[in-house]
Amino acid sequence: MTVAIDQAVADFQAEATSGQQVKLSDLKGQQVVLYFYPKDATPGCTTEGLDFRARFEQFQAANTLIFGVSMDSLKKHESFKCKQEFPFELISDEEHALCDLFGVYQLKKNYGKEYMGIVRSTFLIDKDGVLREEWRNVKVAGHVDKVLAAAQELHKR
C-alpha cells in the first residue's frame, strides 16, 4: 500500500548520512519533507539539492526537516552531501522499500529504453505524521519554492 493525502504515513526506519537512523515516529512534532530523486551527482538532482540547501533556514523556521532519498549507497551519499555542502541528511534506499511505500519506484522510459527507477517526487508530512502534500513527476525549476510555501502554510495551522 502506498501513501495517500490526509492519511498517516506508515512508520519507517532508514539509514541516512552522518550515521543517522531516520525513524518517522521519532520525528513527531516536526514537519518532514522527503524528496526522492533518481541519482546522486547528476545535473537535475544536484540543482534540486542546491535549491533545498539555499532555502534550508527558511524550512527550519517553518519547523520542517528535509531528507533527500535515492537508491544510491551511503558512501555515494556522503560524498555528494559533502561536495555540495548539504545541511540536511540523505537517506539511502538501496532496496527501494521507502520508494515503494511512496510509490515512486516505477517503470521509466528514456531514449526508447525502459527501466525501473525513481520518479522525482516530493512529500510533505505534518508534525503528526500525516501526509499533507505531494508533488509527483517533478520538474526541478521552481519546485523547492512551492514546497517551502506549502511547509510555511502548514506550519501556520
UniProtKB/TrEMBL annotation:
<dbReference type="InterPro" id="IPR050924">
    <property type="entry name" value="Peroxiredoxin_BCP/PrxQ"/>
</dbReference>
<dbReference type="InterPro" id="IPR013766">
    <property type="entry name" value="Thioredoxin_domain"/>
</dbReference>
<keyword id="KW-1015">Disulfide bond</keyword>
<dbReference type="InterPro" id="IPR024706">
    <property type="entry name" value="Peroxiredoxin_AhpC-typ"/>
</dbReference>
<comment type="subunit">
    <text>Monomer.</text>
</comment>
<feature type="domain" description="Thioredoxin">
    <location>
        <begin position="3"/>
        <end position="156"/>
    </location>
</feature>
<dbReference type="GO" id="GO:0140824">
    <property type="term" value="F:thioredoxin-dependent peroxiredoxin activity"/>
</dbReference>
<dbReference type="InterPro" id="IPR036249">
    <property type="entry name" value="Thioredoxin-like_sf"/>
</dbReference>
<dbReference type="InterPro" id="IPR000866">
    <property type="entry name" value="AhpC/TSA"/>
</dbReference>
<keyword id="KW-0560">Oxidoreductase</keyword>
<keyword id="KW-0575">Peroxidase</keyword>
<comment type="function">
    <text>Thiol-specific peroxidase that catalyzes the reduction of hydrogen peroxide and organic hydroperoxides to water and alcohols, respectively. Plays a role in cell protection against oxidative stress by detoxifying peroxides and as sensor of hydrogen peroxide-mediated signaling events.</text>
</comment>
<dbReference type="Pfam" id="PF00578">
    <property type="entry name" value="AhpC-TSA"/>
</dbReference>
<keyword id="KW-0676">Redox-active center</keyword>
<comment type="similarity">
    <text>Belongs to the peroxiredoxin family. BCP/PrxQ subfamily.</text>
</comment>
<keyword id="KW-0049">Antioxidant</keyword>
<protein>
    <recommendedName>
        <fullName>thioredoxin-dependent peroxiredoxin</fullName>
        <ecNumber>1.11.1.24</ecNumber>
    </recommendedName>
</protein>
